[in-house]
């Protein structure tokens, strides 16, 4: 019954948001209350999970969101994204979505997914018209989505990739050898297929963008009289200097992750490599770069607008975390474990398909890619030795399925939506569709990997 009640809660929230036009925060809280009471958590237990889930998500991503949004606001005020987009559009043009998907899936998997979307979203919004005036934003949103999560599950040191490899007892080097080409191919092919989908009338700007957010963004911009002199003062700084608030945190986080994998401990690197500290360093660099050129008053105005945006994102993201907590406490994972049991005598292809399906259903139900992958690995790992399939192939099948259909029960969904000014329907059409496509695209690649592993 937990599965049925979870389905009712998720579908109900989507209908309330899209059809009835109820605010996402209210809709998600109604879903939390229904699910908690329907699955026997009781009044107090439901409240505990709602508040506990909210607090847990805030502890994980609250500062990341705040620092990231403020960095983006300060960089935007200096014209950094405008100049960067001009260069990228001139050199890459319509290839920019492929470059973003490829880079996020291969170069930056050591960066937390929350940091990736916070830092990449402003550039995507600015560059969208240069890529495609009609479909630029959804195309870039889809490319970001699949790039982030293909790297997250397939490419070491992505968090889910490391977790899957560890639970399945697959050496990280072996997992990377197979996962890197699968992750990159999945990101690029999915980006191409997603663009074809957009060209067939899939995207409706009038319903898929959050027009209220766009209006608020426009109202928060400075007037044209102030833009010109600020742009002139900012132009005195080289572009690479203005990009340091993004580049420095990325380097710090990546360095910390790489040394951690190499089991090299250094207290300074551990401190600076923490995502919260790294982004705070980036914020300090941005502040110290903007303040001399724009002055105290103008800098304060930029930060105030950034704080307003941060509050909205934090609230809806936290409530998304509340729904995930209620689902987890409802016993959903245990129910799914009982429903699925791997057959030790199954053919190789059936074992791969069943593994993929287990991970996909877990992710759709639970709302966390990493939790779905870890839970699926826990189900499969005890009998993987008797399946007659190389463990790395089963691990890759888990990774593939765990990407499937990231939707409203994930706090990342709401971060993605608000940072890119998408409506709920728009996020379902970009993030959910891109991750679903990616899960399907990567499955045959895993089957090919099984042939390679067998041959080796």
UniProtKB/TrEMBL annotation:
Keywords: Membrane, Transmembrane, Transmembrane helix. GO terms for molecular function: gluconate transmembrane transporter activity. The keyword Transmembrane applies. The chain crosses the membrane at residues 6-37, 57-78, 98-124, 136-155, 175-198, 239-262, 268-290, 311-328, 348-380, 392-414, 434-455. InterPro entries: Glcn_transporter (IPR003474). It comes from the Bacteria. GO terms for cellular component: plasma membrane. Coiled coil: none annotated. PANTHER family: GNT FAMILY GLUCONATE TRANSPORTER, PERMEASE. This is H+/gluconate symporter. It comes from Trujillonella endophytica. The lineage of its organism: Bacteria, Bacillati, Actinomycetota, Actinomycetes, Geodermatophilales.
């Amino acid at each position: 019954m937990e599965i049925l009640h979870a389905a009712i809660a998720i579908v109900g929230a989507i209908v309330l948001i899209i059809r009835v036009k109820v605010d996402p925060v209210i809709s998600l809280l109604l879903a939390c209350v229904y699910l908690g009471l329907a699955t026997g958590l009781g009044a107090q237990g439901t409240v505990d999970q709602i508040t506990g889930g909210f607090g847990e998500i805030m502890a994980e991503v609250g500062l990341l969101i705040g620092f990231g949004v403020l960095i983006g606001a300060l960089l935007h005020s200096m014209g950094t994204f405008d100049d960067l987009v001009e260069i990228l559009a001139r050199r890459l043009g319509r290839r920019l979505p492929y470059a973003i998907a490829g880079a996020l899936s291969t170069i930056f998997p050591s960066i937390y997914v929350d940091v990736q979307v916070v830092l990449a979203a402003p550039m995507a919004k600015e560059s969208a018209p240069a890529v495609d005036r009609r479909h630029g934003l959804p195309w870039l949103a889809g490319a970001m989505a699949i790039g982030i999560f293909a790297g997250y599950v397939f490419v070491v040191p992505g968090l889910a990739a490391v977790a899957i490899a560890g639970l399945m007892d697959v050496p990280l080097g072996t997992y990377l050898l197979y996962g890197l080409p699968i992750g990159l191919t999945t990101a690029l092919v999915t980006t191409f297929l997603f663009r074809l989908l957009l060209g067939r009338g899939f995207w409706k700007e009038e319903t898929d963008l959050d027009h209220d957010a766009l209006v608020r963004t426009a109202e928060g911009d400075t007037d044209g009289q102030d833009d010109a002199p600020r742009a002139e003062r900012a132009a005195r700084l080289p572009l690479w200097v203005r990009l340091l608030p993004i580049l420095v945190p990325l380097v710090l986080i990546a360095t910390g992750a790489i040394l951690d994998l190499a089991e090299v401990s250094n207290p300074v690197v551990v401190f600076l490599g923490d995502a919260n500290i790294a982004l705070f360093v980036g914020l300090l660099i941005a502040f110290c770069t903007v303040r001399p050129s724009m002055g105290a008053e103008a800098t304060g105005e930029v930060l105030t607008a950034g704080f307003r945006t941060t509050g909205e994102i934090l609230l809806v993201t936290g409530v998304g975390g509340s729904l995930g907590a209620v689902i987890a406490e409802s016993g959903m994972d245990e129910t799914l474990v009982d429903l699925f049991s791997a057959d030790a005598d199954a053919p190789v292809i059936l074992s791969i398909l069943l593994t993929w399906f287990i991970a996909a259903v877990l992710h759709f139900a639970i709302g966390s890619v990493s939790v779905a992958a870890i839970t699926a690995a826990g189900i499969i790992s005890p009998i993987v030795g008797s399946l007659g399939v190389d463990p790395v192939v089963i691990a890759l099948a888990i990774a593939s399925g765990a990407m499937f259909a990231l939707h409203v029960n994930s706090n990342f969904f709401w971060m993605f939506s608000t940072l890119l000014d998408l409506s709920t329907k728009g996020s379902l059409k970009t993030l959910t569709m891109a991750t679903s496509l990616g899960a399907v695209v990567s499955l045959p690649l895993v089957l090919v990997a099984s042939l390679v592993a067998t041959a080796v």
